[in-house]
Amino acid sequence: MNEHESVRAMLALAGAGLLGPDELRRVEEHARTCALCRADLETWAAYAQGLRKLPQPSAPAGLTERTRAKIIQEQAVAAGRRRHAWLLGALAAFGWTGSVAFWVVARALTGGVFTVMGVNLVNGLAWSLGSTVLAWTTAAAAAMMLGRGREMRRFL
Amino acid sequence: MILAAAMAPEGFTGDREIARLRKGDPDAITELIGRYQHRLYRFLVRMVGDPATAEDLYQQTWIRLMEKIGSYDARRSFEAWLFAIARNLAIDHLRRRRGISLDEPDVSGRVPVERLEASGQDVLTQLLDFERAALLAAAIGELPVIHREVLTLRFEEDMKLEQIAEVAGVPLSTVKSRLHRALEGLRARIEASGKGIL
């Protein structure tokens, strides 16, 4: 690629003011002696100038207020979601603590043996299985209740 | 005057407002929204070409900013971070809406000329400016999204190449080559229309 071709490839960026000082000097030096590149450089400069003066789309009236209201609405929804997560977490922790405490009491009262249909209910494994089933059932019921409450509020 | 008020002053970092936002001060977001209202909205209109979608994305940008404010790195430019959020939402929207490649010409994203306001000294200059600007705006609307993006960030938002690279999440060399291709594409479209801008 000769000097003319290599400068031509830089003219768009030169006209737009996007070249470094060394490259710009090279383009300007060449343009001084090359009418074609000089004319092209002027055209690119006109494009850059036109791009800086583009007509501006005006922001619609009340955009800031509507945006602020939307943010507040979204924050309220997020806060509700966080509250529900905390509530479910607290209920789960309470459920497990209660189950363990009740297991200790049940073992103390029954002497570690309380058999129903051949299964020792105060045995560690049976008790934790029973507690798990109970916890999941309760969690599902709570989730359904919360979901219904949300739907009801949306409907109202 | 409105535009001048909306322009972020030189050296504005948003540090004070961000600190207030982190403390949960709701007035801080109002100040930031007001400050960037016109610039961010304009950028989104150029990206998606539709004022209603731009407004929706504008609101989503601020909601996303509020969600992410805790993870904002104060060493980064706030402006670049804000525009990057808006840019990513716009790109996601365009991908979902049309499923098009972002570097292909856009035949539907034309900027509506009737919404544009011209500026100039006398009536003739104003008319010529308006015609030239409308021509350029229409040609920009036909460019691929990644080219519209760099043109508007550079020439309308007056961002440095480094800032554009941060917004678009690409290396500096890519920004330069995209700008080059965007300008070439713009000129080719205008010349193909049989009009010039000189």
Topology:
The complex is a heterodimer of chains A (156) and B (198).
Chain A: H1 3-8, H2 11-15, H3 21-33, H4 35-52, H5 63-110, E1 115-116, E2 119-120, H6 124-155
Antiparallel strand pairs in A: 1-2
Helix pairs in contact in A: 3-4, 5-6
Chain B: H1 2-6, H2 15-22, H3 26-48, H4 51-68, H5 78-98, H6 123-142, H7 145-156, H8 161-168, H9 172-192
Fold and architecture overview:
The complex is a heterodimer of chains A (156) and B (198). Chain A is mostly helical. Chain A folds into 2 domains: 3-52, no CATH class; 63-155, no CATH class. Helices cover 78% and strands 3% of the residues of chain A. Chain A has 6 helices and 2 strands, in the order αααααββα. Chain A has helices at 3-8, 11-15, 21-33, 35-52, 63-110, 124-155, and strands at residues 115-116, 119-120. A two-stranded antiparallel ribbon of chain A has the order 1-2. In chain A, strand 1 (115-116) and strand 2 (119-120) form a beta hairpin. Chain A is elongated. The relative contact order of chain A is 0.06. The mean pLDDT of chain A is 85. Chain B is mainly α and 198 residues long. Chain B has helices at residues 2-6, 15-22, 26-48, 51-68, 78-98, 123-142, 145-156, 161-168, 172-192. The radius of gyration of chain B is 17 Å and the shape is globular. The two termini of chain B are 29 Å apart. The model of chain B is unreliable at 1-10 and 109-120 (pLDDT under 50).
**Which spans of chain A of ≥5 residues are poorly predicted at pLDDT below 50?**
none
Give the number of helices of chain A.
6
Structural class of chain B: mainly alpha
Kindly name the structural category of chain A. Answer: mainly alpha
What is the succession of H and E elements of chain B? HHHHHHHHH
Computed CA radius of gyration of chain A, to the nearest angstrom: 38 Å
The helicity of chain B comes to: 55-70%
Largest sheet of chain B: none
Helix content of chain A: over 70%
Oligomer: heterodimer
Distance between the termini of chain B: 29 Å
The interface involving the most residues is between: A-B, 32 and 50 residues
- Bulk shape of chain A: elongated
Q: Poorly predicted ranges of chain B (pLDDT <50, ≥5 residues)?
A: 1-10, 109-120
Question: How much is the average pLDDT of chain B?
Answer: 81
Strand order of the largest sheet of chain A: 1-2
